[in-house]
Write a structure and sequence with these properties.
The complex is a heterodimer of chains A (463) and B (588).
Chain A: E1 4-5, E2 8-12, E3 15-18, E4 29-33, E5 39-48, E6 51-56, E7 69-72, E8 78-81, E9 89-91, E10 107-110, E11 121-122, E12 127-128, H1 133-138, E13 141-142, E14 149-151, H2 157-167, E15 178-187, H3 189-201, E16 208-214, H4 225-239, E17 243-249, H5 251-264, H6 278-286, E18 291-292, E19 298-306, H7 315-323, E20 326-329, H8 332-336, E21 349-350, H9 353-356, H10 366-390, H11 397-414, H12 424-435, H13 448-454
Parallel strand pairs in A: 9-16, 14-19, 14-20, 15-16, 15-17, 17-19
Antiparallel strand pairs in A: 1-7, 2-3, 3-6, 4-5, 4-7, 5-6, 8-10, 11-18, 12-13, 20-21
Chain B: E1 2-8, E2 11-15, E3 24-28, E4 33-41, E5 44-49, E6 61-68, E7 70-73, E8 81-82, H1 89-96, E9 115-119, E10 126-127, E11 132-139, E12 142-147, E13 154-159, E14 163-164, E15 169-175, E16 178-183, E17 186-189, E18 198-200, H2 211-215, E19 224-228, H3 235-245, E20 250-256, H4 260-269, E21 286-291, H5 297-316, E22 320-326, H6 328-341, H7 355-364, E23 367-370, E24 378-387, H8 397-403, E25 408-409, H9 414-418, E26 431-432, H10 435-445, H11 450-474, H12 481-498, H13 512-534, H14 539-543, H15 547-552, H16 562-583
Parallel strand pairs in B: 8-21, 19-24, 19-25, 20-21, 20-22, 22-24
Antiparallel strand pairs in B: 1-2, 1-6, 2-5, 3-4, 3-6, 4-5, 7-17, 9-11, 9-14, 10-13, 11-12, 13-15, 15-16, 18-23, 23-24, 25-26
Classes of the chains: A alpha/beta (463), B alpha+beta (588).
Chain lengths: 463, 588
Amino acid sequence: MIKEYRTIREVVGPLMLIEEVEGVTYNELVEIRQANGELRSGRVLEVNGDKALVQLFVSGQGLKIDDAKARFLGHGIELGVSLDMLGRVFNGLGEPIDGGDPLIPEKRLDINGEPLNPTARDYPNEFIQTGVSVIDGLNTLVRGQKLPVFSGSGLPHAQLAAQIARQARVIGDETANFAVVFAAVGITFEEANFFITDFTKTGAIERTVLFVNLANDPAIERIATPRMAITAAEYLAYEQGMHVLVIITDITNYTEALREVSAARKEVPGRRGYPGYLYTDLATMYERAGRIKGKAGSITQIPILTMPEDDKTHPIPDLTGYITEGQIVFSRDFNRRGLTPPVDVLQSLSRLKDKGIGAGKTREDHADTMNQLYAAYARGKDAKELAVILGDAALSDMDKLYAKFADAFEREYISQGFNTNRTIFETLELGWRLLALLPRSELRRIRDAYLDKYWPNDAAVTP
Amino acid sequence: MGTIVKVSGPLIVASGMADVKMYDVVRVSHRRLVGEVIELRGDMASIQVYEETSGLGPGEPVESTGVPLSVELAPGLIESIFDGIQRPLALIREQSGDRIARGIEVESLNRTKKWPFTPVVKVGDRVTTGDILVTVQESEAVLHKVLVPPGVAGEITWVATGEATIIDPIVRLKTSGGEVELPMLQRWPVRRGRPYAEKQSPTEPMLTGQRVIDTFFPIAKGGVAAVPGPFGSGKTVVQHQLAKWADAEIIVYVGCGERGNEMTDVLMEFPELHDPRTGLPLMKRTVLIANTSDMPVAAREASIYTGITIAEYFRDMGYKVALMADSTSRWAEALREMSGRLEEMPGEEGYPAYLSSRVAEFYERAGLVIALGAEKRLGAISAIGAVSPPGGDLSEPVTQATLRVIKTFWGLSANLAYRRHFPAIDWLQSYSLYADQLKSWNEENLAPNWNQMVQDAMILLQEEAELEEIVRLVGIDALSFKDRLTLESARSVRDDYLHQNAFHEIDTYTSPQKSLRMLSLIMEYNELGQKALLSFAPFNRIVDLPVRETIGRFKYVPEEEVEEQYATVLETLRSQMQAVVAEGGVRE
């Protein structure tokens, strides 16, 4: 029999202290019922003798401590999962909010998951064609990767995420069972609606599970939302054999909720008031992307975060970058100049690209041309900066060529628009045409054999 | 037997613990999770638990094992992958599937496998700590020497023959305290360094096959190095490259709070790659310790010590061991988290005040030593720690604590990484204090003019940085042709020499001989070019010399063709330059 306690002593912000408890365990789920039937949930953060410190998942507004009863449920916070989740919309705590029937769960899963044995992991190496040149060509995404988008307020990250969700394919595996799990964490109704409309328009909604916590929902509800989404994704991937793309936006809101709880507990803060365990906390979320040996499905994560003040060294992007396998960085300057997507290629990176490209996956010349494009663009940008200060006349002839290359590269390669879907071969060809603006002797990062084979014959034609 | 009174994340406080010692290992709750005592107050003990503590509550039992956290040392270490407290992950997977379940009890080393061994001692020998008892061919690359454990000495009265498991007795010994039987298996507490006879200053480089490291910022065998850098600057690739190509006999790779896929990468790649010196698969000399970032945080703290203790064990056998720890920042964060939960007064950025002494303690366990034992074997541990400074800011406490103890510093630069110059080791910022110690070795083993050439190349790079400042202010036209050629040559050093593609089958590893040839070509070009300028050869012709493209591609020349091609390229360079001079011209 589960005991009910009427010994709630304190409610301070998101925290609640319950006394005279017995048999309470760490991380256990708590249900708080009020006389008027209102139900709240929370989890045990600390138990010390007969005192349990509980973190609420819902706002404490209207909570009256003398008539509230707390029940400890003996298990952690769980999500009921089944295949019927596809096409449904849930709130941040996993309850359906689309007016449909309640979900009949096939099973209930603890949302915290368990660490994955590194020997059970299968190395992600299947190329995903997103149709976006800056990703496919330069920062290749592979199945099972976690590749965040570092954006800023007011930048079109939602458009890029929707474009990827719409266009992502694996060449030669068109029949694969594909699903999207989307978690809106503290974003505005309009932004959430943009995704829902886009998914509906393209029919993707049928294979999408949405978890929505909007900006006006209580901040502390957000703490569970990303883990709800990932738990649903794990079920679809590892038990139903689907290839799941998880989009979580916006991680910044999640970490702020985490900071709120940490501050309420009076913990010693790390940088900028964020708790010292922020890295570990984010890692237990991001690391759940991947592939498992012997399982058909995969989880690819695209978390989106807005960098406060566009500062990449802020703890949220910083710690994320240390965990994830690369990052796609948005540039405000590019956005101002109308480049879509405004991806700053020099700062962006995909760590798993080397295993996902090359002969048999994309094309043999992919790695070399990618390195060459990077090097050439970096030099072209330097030249352009120099020209800004000293004028074009100060540039050597070679630097002028590089500057021209950099311009063409930004215009043609980066800025493709949110509705263009390029195959990887189109992307590679475009790369070659741009490189042909430079003399062949400059292309030292490309093997001779590939230069002979792929150097465009109509090299004189400016793209 | 104690009782839990408080659970707060990985920290547990238990009462009734009066008879335990500091750092004893305890088993917590009915699930028998592994923990370690880190604080004692009266009969209350604070325990850091190496496994997830969800579902634990007051009232559950805590049982002391009476021994400190130790590793098992015996044949079977090589080619294994362990978690932070030396539990074999492959075995865990057999027992609990793809996820790591809690409270699993598995033996660190296989106790049923029979190892054929060769006795080294015979009846009647007097042995003392560090003497070799028997040897076991553990893998094709590693001859495992079973040593007399520390603190044991006596006369051999019986030696086994044939095969034995690691717990079977292999010798009997008459000691002052009576007769003892010794198996191959030994245990050693991880937080205490293994004893040795004498420490020495390192004099030999640990070659890594990475040109920027071997040429400019070498690390010695027995040296300590740190690789700090912001994310995406290639710390892990540098660590992997060292684990692959470093000229060490044993590699201990500690993945501490990093990505799971990186460990998977090592697990899949190392068996395929071959040591350029022995031709054997790299896995045959490697021990892996993986405590990925989603695994419990307290075990991350232990993983570093587990790694270095295993490294010390092989060092005592007389091996040159290289230990990579990726990343020590995550280890420091684990310290911080435990410290916070213990409610200790924090130092900088919430890190405990004892951070720097812990960091120093760890690195000081590396070094070149004469091991205990009659043979006076020379063993070494070279320790290389990655540091992940938040925001790439080197003034943060972990980097600063590390910089005080390490002697080689490979500073990774985000700017180099953005332009895909890898390894992104910043040549102006990095340093190696071993360079002087290694000079004579270089002269004897590489080339008499090597040190001079390296110095000249470094000067070239420094001049480039200064000249670029000027160019940024007044434009390239303001420079003399001499300076402009310096810029060209420096660019060649950067692009054609320092830039090295870890994923290119040939470029990934460069022998010192090949490095020598590559650098000679570039420096020769610079010298001839400057001379040609003095004889009024046209600048543009010198810069556009066709041979420069060949020099740029020299990194892709296979090792066996280096000498032959070097001769040809050098010849071409000289004749082309001569032609330019002969053509002559007026100074533009």
